[in-house]
Write a structure and sequence with these properties.
homodimer, 291 residues, globular, mainly alpha
């Protein structure tokens, strides 16, 4: 097992190269995709994938295209999410959003391109692997990112804006918009490492709990954080009537619930063999953001 | 081998069901995706995939998810293409465009959803097949639809608008925006049928030539056609300064070039075994649209 920084460095060093490896991409398209892809961030999703794979003794280098693909999917969702027709955000990770720099048309295409590139990357890797592990890992990623996963969550988020906040609606949005894309790397990473179905299930439970905790903390930060620290506009959720955990349950209950989700995430790790300390510490550190 | 109408019917009967088979999709998202997916059209891309598979004696039912995925990709590209930030079209296949009915935000998500659903469908099918044919076919589809294929062509189309039309630019746009997505079904269909690399190459040459002829005819129709017949706004290419074959080469040369591409498409079929008459007739019928 490596440290978070080491996994993160592996991903940082590979993202642009993986994209470029797909072939002759029009210069402006590559630039627009790479602008958002190289904007930094914690690289949580790809790090989770590499760590999950490593936990069971899988080949981290073999898993790298899958890790990069997840960051591409995350990035495409942010680009489209920031568009005027959606959240209409000008700032992301401390820099102007994609459409502010490249225009709306190109931002839509950069998002389409990143999603396509992600699918192409994992499929190319799957073909090279020679068995069906890669195909199964790719299926998990695209399913969790798709119309029963992240896109479904995004739809409910957009259409829910300004409607009455209910526990059910917020749980659906958190589960699909956020937790599905944090479960995908665990599921895919374990599959690549040759995990059994039971191990994959335990990993998915961990990912789901981690994802819910992560989004609860994010909701808290939007209320309590500062724009300068987070690199994005804060206090916006309430202003536009977003359905957040805080809006339904209040700040104190949200803190409690986040702690409980982390406890459940750590609990799920007990069904996984190997060196699970990394994943345990990572789940616990989620809470540090709002201590 | 079946008739065009029979392949088309197979696709029509499966499209919505394949989408629904992915699981619990939010009702409004499903409706928005299905609105454009069920809007009719010739279903050329999925028909090509089934026919290519059938030509070499492959299993048409096994190929059906791949065929439907291609139509989903084609549909997503139309939805995003029609957006105000892109071509800003109000009419498609004789009906209001997706964003006119569901709003821009939902149209962007419906497009994202259809691309995701396409990738998920082919991956699920590939996992079920048990060998790597499905993975390879899926890779061909996503590669041709991606940042070195259809998305690349779309970028050059959008950024080329209003610039000086050159033969090189127009050839690039036609090759990637149109021909790549007509080559994908041939490539994938043949791979699913267990074709050799040489056979796949010959099929790709056919698809490329067919695609170029198809787009040349489309350019001609935009100049000569009537809105009522085509179900979309005509004369718009010239009005917004689109880079078309006609703009560079003129009407008469475009007709000649289209005929030559069809001849080359038919020529390429000679390297394919099996019953190639269907693909031959289909290529030739492209020209009938502008006789």
């Amino acid at each position: 097992m490596r440290t978070y920084a080491e996994y993160q460095q592996l991903v940082e060093g590979a993202l642009s190269a993986q994209l470029a490896s797909l072939g002759e991409i029009p210069a402006l398209l590559f630039e627009a995709m790479d602008y958002s892809l190289s904007a930094g961030g914690k690289r949580l999703r790809p790090v989770l994938l590499l760590a999950a794979c490593d936990t069971l003794g899988g080949d981290v280098n073999e898993a790298l295209p899958f890790a990069c693909a997840l960051e591409m999917i995350h990035t495409y969702s942010l680009i489209h999410d920031d568009l005027p027709a959606m959240d209409n955000d000008d700032l992301r990770r401390g820099r102007p959003t994609n459409h502010k720099v490249y225009g709306e048309g190109m931002a839509i295409l950069a998002g389409d391109g990143l999603l396509s590139a992600a699918a192409e990357l994992v499929l190319r890797a799957a073909v090279c692997m020679g068995d069906l592990r890669g195909t199964k890992a790719a299926e998990a990623i695209l399913r969790r990112a798709g119309v029963t996963g992240m896109v479904a969550g995004q739809v409910m988020d957009v259409t829910g804006e300004g409607t009455e906040p209910t526990a059910e609606k917020v749980a659906y949005i958190h589960l699909h918009k956020t937790a599905d894309l944090l479960t995908a790397p665990i599921e895919a990473g374990l599959i690549l490492a040759g995990a059994t179905d039971e191990q994959v299930s335990a990993g998915c439970e961990y990912g789901k709990r981690l994802g819910l905790a992560f989004q609860m903390v994010d909701d808290l930060l939007d209320v309590e954080g500062e724009t300068a620290v987070l690199g994005k506009t804060t206090g916006k959720d309430a202003a536009v009537g977003k359905l957040t955990w805080v809006a339904v349950h209040g700040i104190e209950k949200t803190r409690q619930d986040a702690r409980e989700q982390v406890r459940l995430a750590v609990e799920a790790l007990k069904s996984l063999p190997g060196e699970t300390n990394f994943l345990k510490t990572l789940a616990q550190s989620t809470l540090n953001r709002v201590q």
